[in-house]
Specification:
- This protein is 43% helix and 12% strand.
- It is α/β, with parallel strands linked by helices.
- The termini are far apart.
């Protein structure tokens, strides 16, 4: 979740050959814009951990160097990706994963040989921690996504 989704997205960008599929839940994917504009619910409290790119060139350069959205430039071997987010999440607004998915799909259009899945599910409510009544349905979707992406077969 959140920062964990950030780390997984960085790996997808930097070392896509290491993984075939990733599930990102409420991932913090546009760190740079969020921190510069102060658009995140916790931005001011996060300056100590992430740095303040609006006031420091070093912080700006560091965040830009790993920010998943800003480093999504090549689609070579990008893994299949399933992103789950919530419309009412104050910490990771839904626009953040949507921008990432839109950019990824735009890059895919230029690489017709890519056959990875790019899925995004947005639930209306659930907040940052996903508290809603869709728990088992959501987990089932993620498992189905992983089975398809990893070309696994169910044996009955």
């Amino acid at each position: 979740m959140s920062a964990g989704g950030l780390a997984a997205a960085v790996i997808c960008n930097e070392l896509p050959e290491l993984i075939q599929a990733a599930v990102l839940q409420v991932p913090f994917l546009d760190v740079l814009n969020s921190m510069v504009k102060g658009s995140s619910y916790l931005t001011e409290q996060e300056y100590e951990e992430w740095g303040n790119p609006a006031n420091s060139k070093d912080d700006y350069d560091t965040i830009e160097s790993y920010c998943p959205l800003h480093n999504l430039k090549q689609i070579k071997n990008f893994p299949s990706i399933y992103i789950k987010t919530y419309a009412d999440d104050e910490r990771v607004p839904a626009w953040m994963p949507l921008k990432f998915v839109a950019k990824l799909r735009s890059l895919e259009m230029n690489h017709p040989k890519m056959n990875n899945l790019v899925l995004c599910r947005i639930d209306a409510s659930g907040g940052h921690y996903g508290y809603n009544n869709q728990g088992s349905k959501s987990v089932s979707e993620m498992i189905a996504f992983l089975y398809m992406s990893l070309d696994l077969h169910l044996s009955l």
